[in-house]
Write a structure and sequence with these properties.
The chain is 57% helix and 8% strand. It is built from nine helices and four strands, in the order E-H-E-H-H-E-E-H-H-H-H-H-H. The mean pLDDT is 94.
Length: 216
């Protein structure tokens, strides 16, 4: 059965591949699973029909038969457990890959999202510069720890896994900030992820939605 995911009808990221459906698209492309996409507007995301799938009125959702999932990390874990290619066969290596998935969304992503909130919603506050500096210092702390762990390896724990997929997607949220470039090993790590054919297919698919929705 071909699963269906939801995505923004008009993505606020302007086709840069930052919306969270991109993570799920990439996972499906990595394992060679065809999928359908249902585009939803911001209004539709808050209506009862969509909230029945995603109680917080967000994207993506994942529907496969009578199974409905939300939260991109949970969706990717489901995909990785059902298809070869995103989790190692060895039980211990598999557990470590899942730990890196959680690290990406629970340890690395929160301060990065805090930075985005500060820049877009708190810029006019008198304490904005102090707040931004504090958040960026927290990010640098996490990036330094991740860089030290990665070292000169290509991926976090041997072969590419769902842990790397989520980590690369989280780190891409720093594009344009200059922070990632302070850690050359992490910048190269992200570039390796972006060079994977499955990533390129997923990126092009999401960009096509934005291009089709743009006037002119």
């Amino acid at each position: 059965m071909i699963p269906t995911i939801t995505a923004f009808e008009r993505s606020p990221d302007r086709g840069r591949g930052q919306a969270r459906d991109m993570r799920v698209r990439w996972a499906l492309e990595e394992v060679g699973q065809p999928y359908d996409v249902r585009l939803v507007s911001f209004r539709e995301m808050k209506e009862p029909a969509h909230r029945a799938l995603q109680p917080f009125g967000q994207i993506p959702t994942y529907e496969e038969g009578d199974l409905t999932l939300f939260e991109s990390g949970a969706i990717i874990l489901h995909i990785a457990e059902r298809h070869a290619g995103l989790l190692p066969d060895d039980a211990k290596a598999r557990a470590r890959a899942i730990a890196w998935m959680f690290a990406a969304v629970s340890t690395l992503e929160p301060p990065i999202v805090d930075r985005e909130i500060a820049r877009y919603l708190e810029r006019d506050e008198s304490w904005y510069e102090q707040r931004l500096s504090s958040v960026e210092d927290r990010i640098r702390g996490r990036l330094g720890e991740l860089s030290a762990r990665l070292g000169d390896a290509d991926w976090l724990d041997g072969a590419f896994s769902a842990g790397d997929l989520l980590m690369v997607m989280v780190l891409r949220r720093l594009n344009g900030s200059g922070l990632l470039e302070e850690y050359p090993s992490l910048a190269a790590y992200v570039s390796r992820g972006e060079a994977r054919p499955a990533f390129r297919r997923a990126f092009d698919a999401q960009l096509a939605v934005f291009t089709a929705a743009s006037p002119g």
